[in-house]
Specification:
Helix content: under 10%
Distance between the termini: 55 Å
Largest sheet: 6 strands, mixed
Strand order of the largest sheet: 2-1-4-9-6-7
Oligomer: single chain
Shape: globular
Radius of gyration: 19 Å
Length: about 200
């Protein structure tokens, strides 16, 4: 219950020679929370039934919905190499950690010394960690998610890396598809133009 109420965190034990230098390092820790009946203090009680079913109400980064969005977004610049120390307090769900629009150049699975390269999504078990590293090549808002995607957009496991700097049209043209996918028939619908 203490883990389910947020009593977790990350401790970094670096190798004696240290980790290779990067431009920015950030801490991102996922956790899942249940919400029971509200108590007099407006604090939600722990819900053991939801915990046993592994059906939390919230799956969040750094302790709450929105902790890494808006004014709290992580900030970096084009050309910088970023290292994310990614933890998962759990207590119940494995994270499929992903940054939309990026490929991890290096991943240290389970926070160990083994390295995987060119990874797009890495698993982080409850009570575990991973280290991801990648170079930012274009500006934009890169969205960090648990790629069990309904957790991100419906339960809160969402964060932003806001990257400023010059565009690189050789890597990303900026062109986006202006059509909407219709799941019922699998058709793609054309959007009317809203540009002046």
């Amino acid at each position: 219950m203490h883990i389910a109420n947020g009593m977790y965190g990350l401790i970094l034990v670096e190798p004696k020679e240290g980790l290779p230098k990067v431009d920015k390092e950030f801490y991102v820790c996922q956790g899942d929370f249940t919400r029971g009946a509200a108590m007099a203090s407006l604090v939600s009680a722990f819900d053991m039934e939801k915990a046993l079913e592994e059906n939390p109400d919230y799956v969040v980064f750094n302790g709450k919905v929105g902790a890494l969005t808006g004014d709290n977004s992580l900030k970096a610049k084009v050309g910088e190499t970023v290292r994310l120390f990614v933890g998962n307090g759990g207590p119940g769900l494995t994270s499929s950690f992903h940054v939309i629009g990026e490929i991890f150049d290096n991943v240290y699975p389970e926070g160990g010394s083994t390295q995987n390269h060119n990874v797009q999504t890495t698993l982080v078990p409850p009570g575990g960690s991973a280290i991801t590293e990648f170079k930012l090549e274009v500006p934009g808002n890169f969205i960090m998610v648990d790629h069990a995607i309904f957790r991100a957009f419906n339960k809160g496991a969402l964060g932003i890396i806001q990257v400023d700097g010059p565009e690189n049209k050789m890597i990303f043209s900026g062109q986006q598809d202006d059509r909407i996918y219709q799941p019922e028939g699998g058709a793609v619908q054309t959007m009317p133009s809203t540009r002046c």
